[in-house]
């Protein structure tokens, strides 16, 4: 069954939000982190949004998914609750798991510079879109829908979920396209694989109660600074069935 409802609305109905399970919420310029009373940590990018102002509200009440700052905290909460899944995970980079050398019409939505460098080194063509960042390698956002309609493979930033652009992007892709979600904001729930063309999800998990991750985020650090304390994990339908 292919899910049609936007993910966060889907998940709040399925899994809810238990503020009593939250030990702390911290936020900096780049990321927000939620740590649960069991020590599990989840993170989500901020996209320049001020999340700090709404933290007190989300410690005592459920999120209002019409507000982007609430969506960010809820995404981090879901990651803390569910990224520590019982499925077999691989601590590998997307480039180590997938072979892009014979693929055509590869599209990246969300600029992942380390991955782009690997494509460039391998001389594999890649069309890149990003609604926030600036880079000479980016294609004009006006061309995104038409390009997605021709895509064979899409590497999609998981920030598309909280920014509420996810459904527009996946629904623009043709049947048979393979979408791989990427980034520490990834929600590694099996239901994410029930959306159109989603084949694998690459996310991150952290050791319980790792204060180093929270310190980096609270002091305005980004992915490079805190991801070294975590593991890169992936989720696919095969792992769920095993």
Automatic annotation (TrEMBL):
UniProt-listed InterPro entries: DUF364
Domain Putative heavy-metal chelation, first and last residues per copy: 94-233
Domain of life: Bacteria
Pfam families: DUF364
Record-given protein name: Uncharacterized conserved protein, contains DUF4213 and DUF364 domains
Naturally occurring in which organism (per UniProt): Desulfocicer vacuolatum DSM 3385
């Amino acid at each position: 069954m292919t899910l049609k409802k936007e993910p966060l609305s889907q998940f709040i109905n399925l899994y809810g939000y238990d503020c009593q399970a939250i030990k702390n919420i911290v936020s900096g310029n780049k990321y927000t982190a939620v740590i649960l009373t069991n020590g599990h940590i989840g993170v989500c990018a901020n996209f320049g949004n001020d999340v700090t102002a709404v933290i007190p509200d989300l410690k005592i009440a459920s999120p209002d998914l019409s507000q982007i700052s609430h969506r960010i905290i809820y995404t981090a909460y879901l990651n803390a609750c569910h990224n520590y899944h019982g499925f077999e995970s691989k601590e590998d980079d997307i480039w180590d798991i997938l072979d892009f050398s014979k693929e055509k019409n590869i599209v990246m939505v969300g600029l992942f510079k380390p991955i782009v460098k690997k494509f460039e080194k391998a001389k594999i063509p890649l069309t890149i879109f990003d609604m926030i960042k600036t880079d000479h390698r980016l294609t004009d956002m006006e061309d995104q829908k038409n390009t997605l309609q021709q895509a064979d493979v899409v590497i999609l930033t998981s920030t598309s979920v909280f920014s509420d652009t996810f459904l527009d992007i996946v629904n623009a892709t043709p049947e048979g396209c393979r979408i791989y979600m990427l980034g520490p904001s990834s929600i590694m729930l099996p239901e994410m694989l029930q959306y159109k063309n989603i084949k694998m999800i690459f996310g991150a998990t952290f050791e319980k109660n790792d204060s180093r991750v929270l310190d980096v985020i609270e002091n305005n650090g980004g992915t490079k600074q805190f991801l070294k304390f975590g593991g890169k994990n992936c989720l696919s339908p095969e792992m769920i069935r095993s």
